[in-house]
Amino acid sequence: MDKVTTYDEFCEALGGRGDVILFRGQPVSDFVLIPSGLRPDHRGIADIQMFRFVDAMQQVFGYDELTCIEVAQHFSLPTRMLDFSYSYTVGLFFACYDAKGRYGDCDGKVYVFNKSRYEWILKQLGKNSAEVVRSNEYLYKWLQHYVDKSDTRMGDDGLDMPIFVEATRQFDRLYSQRGLFLLWGRDEICLEKIFEKEGIDERDVFDTVVISAEHKKSILQELREKHISQDSLFLNSEWIKELVSTIKYGERCRDGKEQS
Predict the structure, then answer these.
(1) Is residue 105 classed exposed, middle or buried when 0-12, 13-18 and 19+ CB atoms within 10 A define those classes?
(2) What are the pLDDT digits (tens) for 177-202?
(3) Contact 46/40 with Cβ under 8 angstroms?
(4) pLDDT at 83
(5) Rounded to whole angstroms, how far apart are CA atoms 169 and 91?
(6) Higher pLDDT, 140 or 116
(7) CA 165 to CA 82: how far, in whole Å?
């Protein structure tokens, strides 16, 4: 299909889809679906870092394991989870947004993922993961094995396929981004290869919309007019602090003196 060049064209490209549809945006179109903690540059150390993080968070806040991992994910600590969103505008934003300026010349991509279809396929294949939901004992059993550094394969009880996990929503960014996660268990390869191994045609589960590189900035501006921006999605606390300071004390120069 032709590349998307405007917000309206993106909406048109989504027409006709049903069920529970999820979105994930990537600023570079050759991305494959694998969590940062399982990518080559983090493999072997990500789990160790996660164990330390969960221990510290539980000591300070008393959060459960899943909430600790959610917080880690949103502060860029490598995890076994990929972010998705129920919002197509959030997906489009992340296909255009490039915080470090590495992909300005690259087309972006939005994954359009049929969650209902995927979970139906898991059930048809008799996968244990089909029985795992956010409140299910199997999920917490797996998480406990994970943070206890024990065998996450768990015989026949482990996560045999990645599963979608609803966010605990104890973290503000998850509200603003309408987020949830795809959690990897036993297989430590990209989702495309997992599908190939299991005989699943990925086209039955997701497709992609390519975002034109030269139009990313203009699409971001269109989204900003719809209140989808870095400040709104990341709840920019520094901007809020500066706004409060300005309202309370007025504009100040860098040396602390009020502006005339």
Answers:
(1) exposed
(2) 888 899 988 888 999 999 999 999 99
(3) no
(4) 92
(5) 18
(6) 116
(7) 10
